[in-house]
Structure prediction request, 451 residues.
Amino acid sequence: MLWESLWRSVAKVWRIEQGLTNENTQIYTEQQHQQTQLFFSIFRIRYLNQKILLSFNNDYYLVKTISRLDRQYDHLCLLKSVNIPVVYDIQNIDHYHIYNAHKHKSLITHIIVSSHFFIHHYHNLLQESQPLPILFGITITDKEKDPVLLANELPPSVQYYKYTIGGTITKDHIPRLATVVHLSVGELDSGVVPNNVETLILRCPDYVVTNPSALVEFNYQSIPKSVKCLTLYRNFEKININLLPPNLRYLRLVNRNIQGDGFGSLKRLSMLCLDGEEMITRPNSVTQLKLFHVQKYDTAIQLPPNLYFLHIQKMYQDYSKVSQLPAPLPRNLKTLSLDIQTKLSPNPSNLKTLKLYNLGHPGDFYFHIFDQFPNLSKLCLSVKLKDSFSHMFDIVCPNYNNSKFPSTIKQVKFKSQNTGRPSESYHFINGKVYIETNLPLSRHKMSIIPS
Prediction:
């Protein structure tokens, strides 16, 4: 039902835009009409796909800063229209006054508040003539200020619960209807986390962080079978995926040793790999994999056969060392994202998107990317060079040398780290190339019209 409502809303937006375009063609010249269509061919895809559709994978949308009410006004209106909660975290009374004074505050449908705010301000504000958004979540993150509340002291609307002050909590603390729980506790007993929880985040208490080498035995019984997304920011001795919830789709963890292949439901895996650890075979069901390495040497990585997204990043500062890519890469890999120095070699012919960050290679390196990946449609480069992409590839908009690019190329995003220039997006459309400069809205320019 939600998706049907979403697609009706998206279709309505599409029809409105198309109607406006058709109306304008009555007064535009043929050249203006082509320019308008060109603009929308870029704008529609990026806005609808990147800014709206991807967000509907979540059960709610968290507004991190109040300024997003201005920057993402249309986006948030659409979320609200299809009854997806738009949530704002009110940490203190100052945050409340900032929220209350904003002209678009009506976009906020739900709020998260601290237990201190809930005790000292929430009930008073409920008495005001203007109603507050629905209380969506409660946070207990400050040992000095936030009192520890029991679940029966909270409204039944609370679905988000965050407790990060350490110690021990019981089943009487977490609301039974919570679906998102974020905990930082010493030990977690069975039955504490409600069976309704789908997203669970477990972090180390502060005293454990000071001794990161200490291994902890994982209590599988403490994880409800309802959990679909699990984050473990603790260095457990080992994790047996076969003992995790059967419908688990997403797992993020600090790896010590993972075992098992799961039940086929696990699709997304994100791992921080510590020093001295050997990489082992990942569950075959995984299709999206992120690996963050701390060690300063290469290790063997056996990748799942059905992987279509892979990100590899080294977390230390020695970027000069060249790392080897896992070989062979899966045949169905569609997106490869690398934040390491590496030598590229011909890889899966199905690869569509390549992202390369913090590159320090000489200019000649970039000319061979398209030779090795002949079917790319999108390339993202973040490089330590002063040259612009236009200069490197002899681009004079809207013309370019098509022998230097595959016929499949649609977009190149380029950022030079050694200059003050903003990042640029090159859009390849109908044998021409157009540059979109990623500036703040007040300075944004798009080179879609040849000068």
About this structure: Confidence is low (pLDDT under 50) at residues 1-57, 440-451. Residues 324 and 343 are 7 Å apart (CA to CA). The first strand starts at residue 61 and ends at 63. The chain is about 20% helix and 25% strand.
